[in-house]
Amino acid sequence: MSDERETEGVDGSTRLLAGEMGVRPTNSDPEGDGAEEKLVTEDGKLNSNRETSEVKFISADSQNGDAKIDIENVKHTFAGMGKDELMKFANDPFWIRMRWFLFIFFWVLWIAMLVGAVAIIILAPKCAGPAPLKWWEESPLYEVNVRTFVDGEKEDGIGDLVGLKSKLDYIKGLGVKGIVLSSVLQSSHKLEDGYVENFAEVDPLVGTVHDFTNLTAAMKEEGMHLILDFIPNHTSKKHPWFVASEKKESPFTDYYVWTQKEPNNWVSLYGESAWAYSEIRKEYYLHQFKPDQPDLNFRNREVINEFKKIMKLWLERGVSGFQMSNVEFLVEDKDFGEDFVNPHTVVTLGQYDFLQHSKTANLPETYDVLRELRESMLNVSSDSVLAVSSNVTRYGGLVRDNNMTHAFDIMRNADLFSSLKHEFTAVNLNHTIYGWMRATEGYRTFWELGNAYRSRVASRFSPEVVDGLNAVVMLLPGTPITLYGDELGMSDSDGEPRALAPMAWRNSTAAGFSANESISALSLNFQEKNVETEESSEDSHLGIYRTLSKKARTSRSIMYGKFESTVYNDTVYAYTRLKSGNPGYLVVFNPSDYETTANLKESLKSMSDDLTLVVKSPHVEDRKYQASSLYLPAKSMGVFTFVPQQE
C-alpha cells in the first residue's frame, strides 16, 4: 500500500498525494506534472457547492512511488437530490394527483389493449379452413323400419324397440352415427302410413315410452343419434283432435280444414275428390290422402303450437331430430281457388297428375311453418336436425348452419336413382349424380339408393353392382342414407311392401328376425345374404360397406375434398376427391358387362400414375395399379389413394 499525503489547495480544499492504487493517469495534464485531479473537501467528502475539479497525477515518475493529486479547475455538475428534497415532492398535492393520473392511465390503457386484442381475435376473418361437420354430416345415416328390423322379447313376429336396442353394436360397427327411425307413434293402422291417433305416445305394437327412452339413452352412451320420422300433415279420423273438431268443441273447431260445401276441383293423391263429408258436423273436410286421413289446418296458430309441444316432448325423450314426410301438403290456398290443368300432363281427368296442384302443394307458407318449427326445435336442442322426405321445391332451401331463416337441414330425394334402368350405364349414372349436385349446389347433398317404397338395389338392378353403387354413393360429397339390409345386398321379399322384408340376421327360421315361425315374407336371398354369413368376410357386401364407411369415408379428402368426375369410353364412371395436404382418392366403377382398361390420368386433374388399392370388388385383383392403364373387370369397382400432382 503506497503512502498518502495532503497539501492545502488555493480554494481551501486539500491536495491529496496518493500512491498508484486505484488511480489511472489521464492524457490531459495542464501542468505537465503527470497528476490527475479529483474533487475533495477538507472533511474528505465531495464538494457540496457543486464545484468539481479534475483529479490528476502530478508526477508519474516519483521516486518513491507516490502520486501527487491536484484538485483544481472546478466544474459544475449535478449530484442528485437528497431524501429531504424528494419528500417535499412526494407530499406535494400536484405530484400526488399526477401519480394517480399516471397509475389509472396505465391500467385503462392496458385494459383497452386487452379488449382490443380479444375483439380482433373474435371479429377478424377466420382462416379459410373447412367448417366442422355436424354429426349428421360425418357418417352415413342408417334407416330402420322398427317393425321389420328385429323382434325383441315378445316374439310376436313384429319388430320392436327392445329388439332395435339389442342391435346397436351391429349398427355402430357399420361406422354409423345416426339412425333414421320409422314412426313409432300410436297409430290405428300401419305405423308408416300416417294414421296417427296420438303424437305423444308410442304404439303398443313396438313398445312403450320407457322402451323408447332406454333406446335413446343407450344410443347416446354409444355416441349415436336418433332421428324420428312422422307425418305432420294429417291424422287418423280416430285422433281426439278430429273427434272434437267434428263436434266443434273448442279449441279444436278449426284444427282441420273445413268448408260448408265442396268448393273446388282439388283431388287427393288417389285421384278422387279431396273433400269428404262429415255427417256429424254437416260440413266437408279436406283429405289429400285417404278419407280417413283428414288434413290438419296449419293456418291455425294453435295447430303449430301443438306441434312445437310435441317436438319438445320427443327431444326431451332423447331424439336428436325429426324427419317429416309429406310436408309439401301442410298449407293450402286459403281462398280454396280452382286448381289448374297441368300443361305437361300425359294422364286423363281424374288422375292426380292431371292438375298442377299449385293450390295444395309447396305453397310459400309451408316453409314459413317449417322454419318456425325448426327454430323452436333448435331452441330446445341446438345440435338437432330437421329432415324432410317429400317432393319439395328449392323454395325452402337447404341449410348447413343454424340460420333461422331456412326451413330444414336435410332434403331427401327418394326418387333420385329411380330413373336408372336395370342395365344402366356409366353415362346414365353420371347424368343422375351431376343433375342432383347441380340442383343442390351450395348446400349439403344427401344420397340414397333405396327406401321403403321402392324395390331394393339388389333387386332393382343386380346383386353384382351393389358394391359399386355403395362405393360411389358413400364417397360422394354429402351424406349417404342407407336402408337397413342394403349393406348386405338384401333383395326384395315376395310380400308388400317388397323392400320391407325382415332384416336377414342369419340363415335360420325367419332369417333370425324372430323366433316366430309364422314369418313368411322374407328376403328372397336371405339364405346367402345375411349378417352371420357375411360377418367374417372382408370381400362380402357387408365387409366392403364397413371398409368404405370406417376407413375411406373418415379421410379428410372424402369429408372436405374437391370433387371431379369423368366417364371413360361410356363404360367407366370415375371421380376424385382432393384436399390439400392429404392423399387423393379415386373411385372407379364399371357397371357394364365388359372388362375394360381405362386411362384416367389424362382426364382427371392432379392424378399421379401410381395408385394404392383401398377397397375393391371381390373379383378385382389385389395388386399395384396405374391410372394410365387401370384394368377393371365387368360389374366391378375399386377405391384407390394417390399422391396428388401439383397443377
Automatic annotation (TrEMBL):
<feature type="region of interest" description="Disordered">
    <location>
        <begin position="1"/>
        <end position="45"/>
    </location>
</feature>
<keyword id="KW-0812">Transmembrane</keyword>
<dbReference type="InterPro" id="IPR013780">
    <property type="entry name" value="Glyco_hydro_b"/>
</dbReference>
<dbReference type="GO" id="GO:0016323">
    <property type="term" value="C:basolateral plasma membrane"/>
</dbReference>
<dbReference type="InterPro" id="IPR031984">
    <property type="entry name" value="SLC3A2_N"/>
</dbReference>
<dbReference type="GO" id="GO:1903801">
    <property type="term" value="P:L-leucine import across plasma membrane"/>
</dbReference>
<dbReference type="GO" id="GO:0015173">
    <property type="term" value="F:aromatic amino acid transmembrane transporter activity"/>
</dbReference>
<dbReference type="InterPro" id="IPR006047">
    <property type="entry name" value="GH13_cat_dom"/>
</dbReference>
<feature type="compositionally biased region" description="Basic and acidic residues">
    <location>
        <begin position="35"/>
        <end position="45"/>
    </location>
</feature>
<dbReference type="Pfam" id="PF16028">
    <property type="entry name" value="SLC3A2_N"/>
</dbReference>
<dbReference type="GO" id="GO:0016324">
    <property type="term" value="C:apical plasma membrane"/>
</dbReference>
<dbReference type="InterPro" id="IPR017853">
    <property type="entry name" value="GH"/>
</dbReference>
<dbReference type="Pfam" id="PF00128">
    <property type="entry name" value="Alpha-amylase"/>
</dbReference>
<keyword id="KW-1133">Transmembrane helix</keyword>
<feature type="domain" description="Glycosyl hydrolase family 13 catalytic">
    <location>
        <begin position="143"/>
        <end position="514"/>
    </location>
</feature>
<dbReference type="InterPro" id="IPR045857">
    <property type="entry name" value="O16G_dom_2"/>
</dbReference>
<dbReference type="GO" id="GO:0015823">
    <property type="term" value="P:phenylalanine transport"/>
</dbReference>
<dbReference type="GO" id="GO:1904273">
    <property type="term" value="P:L-alanine import across plasma membrane"/>
</dbReference>
<dbReference type="GO" id="GO:0005975">
    <property type="term" value="P:carbohydrate metabolic process"/>
</dbReference>
<dbReference type="InterPro" id="IPR042280">
    <property type="entry name" value="SLC3A2"/>
</dbReference>
<dbReference type="GO" id="GO:0015180">
    <property type="term" value="F:L-alanine transmembrane transporter activity"/>
</dbReference>
<dbReference type="GO" id="GO:0015190">
    <property type="term" value="F:L-leucine transmembrane transporter activity"/>
</dbReference>
<protein>
    <recommendedName>
        <fullName>alpha-glucosidase</fullName>
        <ecNumber>3.2.1.20</ecNumber>
    </recommendedName>
</protein>
<feature type="transmembrane region" description="Helical">
    <location>
        <begin position="100"/>
        <end position="124"/>
    </location>
</feature>
<dbReference type="GO" id="GO:0004558">
    <property type="term" value="F:alpha-1,4-glucosidase activity"/>
</dbReference>
<keyword id="KW-0472">Membrane</keyword>
